[in-house]
Amino acid sequence: MKKDYVLLATVFVMLIGFASCGNKSQKTTGGATEQRQSSALEVDSLLANADSLVGKEVTVEGVCTHICKHGGRKIFLMGSDDTQTIRIESGKLEKFDQKCVNSVVSVTGTLVEDRIDEAYLQKWEAQIKARNAEKNGNDEEGCSTEKNARGETDNTPEGRIADFRAKIAKRKAKSGKEYLSFYYIKAFSYEIQQ
Question: Is the pTM of the predicted complex or chain greater than 0.90?
Answer without folding.
Answer: no
